[in-house]
Every structure is written in C-alpha cells, then in structure tokens.
Amino acid sequence: MSDLIHYTETEHAITLRFDNGKVNVLSPAMIAAINEALDRAEAAPFKAVIFTGREGMLSGGYDLGVMQQGGMAAVRDMVDAGSRLTRRMLAFPKPIIAACNGHAIAKGAFLLLASDYRIGVEGEYKISLNEVAIGLTMHHAGIELCRGRLAPVYFNRAMINAEVFNPVAAVDAGFLDKTVANEEALQQEAAAMAQHMATLNANAFAATKVKARKQHLDALDWAIEEDKKA
Ligand SMILES: C/C=C/C(=O)SCCNC(=O)CCNC(=O)[C@H](O)C(C)(C)COP(=O)(O)OP(=O)(O)OC[C@H]1O[C@@H](n2cnc3c(N)ncnc32)[C@H](O)[C@@H]1OP(=O)(O)O
C-alpha cells in the first residue's frame, strides 16, 4: 500500500486518510494509490469507505506541477485518471463517506461531489472550484459532476463564478451534507454514519446507487470521452 494513504479497517468502516505531508495533491501517484485502496476495499466485506485528509487539508486538487510543466499528454492522462476515479466513486458498490477536515480545492472538491455522504468540520478553510479563477476552462467531466451533485442554484455560482465557500455555506451549495464542530466530532459522525450504512443490504445498496445515477453516469462516460479529444 502506498505511503500517500493510511488504510485502516474497523468493524464498520475502511478509512483512507490522505496524507502526503503537504496539500494532498491529486498527482498521478495519489490517484493510483486511491484506486489501489479502493480495489482492496472492494474485495472486503460490505462496509463504508471513509475518505479523509489530515487536519486542515483534504486536497489542493490536481498537481499543479504536472498541470503547468508536465506537457499536454501528461495533463490529459492525469485528468482522465482523475475523472475515471470520481466516476468509479459514484458507482462504487460500497458507501463512500467523505470526512472533510480542511481545504478541498478543484479536484479536491470533486472528491466531495463524488461521495455518498459528506461531513465537514467547521473552520476557516476553503471549498472551491477555482478552475476559472486560475485560467482553466472547466472540462466536460467537471461540468457533469457539478450538474449531477450541486444544488441547482449553485451550479453557476460554484463553477462559472468560482465562488469560495466556507464549510457551512458549502452545505447549501451541495458540497457537504452537514458540518460538525471539531475534528473529534467529525471522526465520530463519520463512524456513526458508517455504522448505519453497514446495516444496509449490500446488493440493494449497490444496485440502487447505479440505478439512481444512471443518467449521471452516462453523462460522465460521454464527458470523459469528449475530454480526451480536447
Ligand atoms: C478539474 C480540476 C482542476 C484542478 O484540480 S487544478 C488544481 C487547482 N488547485 C489549485 O489551484 C491549488 C490552490 N491552492 C490553494 O488554494 C492553497 O495552496 C491551499 C488552500 C490548498 C493550501 O493553502 P495553504 O495551507 O496556505 O498552503 P500554501 O502555502 O498555499 O501551499 C503550500 C504548498 O503547496 C503548494 N501547492 C498548493 N496546491 C498545490 C497543487 N494543487 N499542486 C501543487 N502544489 C500545490 C504551494 O505551491 C506551496 O508550495 P511551496 O511550499 O513550495 O511554496
């Protein structure tokens, strides 16, 4: 298992804690590590998977080093892998709970939009799709993820206007489902939701998730192919 992610398993949950010691960039290596951890979680008995970061940081998004200096092919490969990862999360046969303990920027915020239940700790940190602010035209997969998961009135505000949300405002926008006061409460709340999720019927959960999201998943499949032509 990669040293970018700490993988721990309890009776009701598998926790993936992202910690690269910095801002948890979604580099090709981090995306591969998350996929490897999901492979392992998929083979485990039915229980929730909790995505979390280190205190103050979920993820600063795609690796700007690759974005700025990697060359077109490397950027396209990283974005394609990232889009496939969030598409995988949306169809993953086990529940994915995001326990957001800090900044979630761009692709970091998309991890929230691809999770089944999202809890954020209250605090002075940013949840933002900053692509337009930093000169990136949003890719199709990003647009479709926003269309599928953001509250409708925030679709334009969060994506086209690149507004920055604090965790409480992020609940209204649709990045989070609820906030809690501190890190301890965050981990407790995630564990309690995992315990509830573990009582669900595994087959019914997996089938309902992809059935309910069929249109969204079809749109993402189209978007991922379209982005490869850009
Ligand atoms: C479709 C999706 C597209 C994308 O995902 S594109 C990527 C979009 N991401 C960004 O534009 C990153 C924005 N970064 C930030 O807003 C802030 O950073 C944070 C809120 C994440 C953290 O703020 P703070 O805690 O004050 O740290 P700090 O001093 O800004 O950054 C610490 C070091 O981390 C580097 N860094 C931050 N984000 C990234 C990144 N995404 N890729 C590569 N490096 C990053 C910085 O440059 C700096 O580096 P040094 O210590 O050498 O000065």
Under CATH at level 1, the class stands as Alpha Beta
What is the straight-line distance between the termini? 33 Å
Count of helical regions:
10
Structural domains: how many: 1
Spatial strand order of the main sheet: 1-2-3-5-7-10
Shape: globular
**Kindly state the mean pLDDT as a whole number?**
97
Short description:
One of its GO terms (biological process) is fatty acid beta-oxidation. Its EC number is 4.2.1.17. This protein is an alpha/beta fold and 230 residues long.
Describe this structure in words.
The protein has 230 residues and is α/β, with parallel strands linked by helices. It has a single domain, classed as 2-enoyl-CoA Hydratase, Chain A, domain 1. The chain is built from ten helices and ten strands. It has a six-stranded mixed sheet with strand order 1-2-3-5-7-10, with helices on both faces. A hairpin with a 3-residue loop joins strand 1 and strand 2 (13-18). The longest helix has 20 residues, at 72-91. The mean pLDDT is 97. Ligand A1D88 is lined by residues 22-23, 25, 60-65, 67, 103, 105-107, 126, 130-131, 134, 139, 142. Keywords: Lyase. Belongs to the enoyl-CoA hydratase/isomerase family. This is Enoyl-CoA hydratase. It is an enzyme of class 4 (lyase).
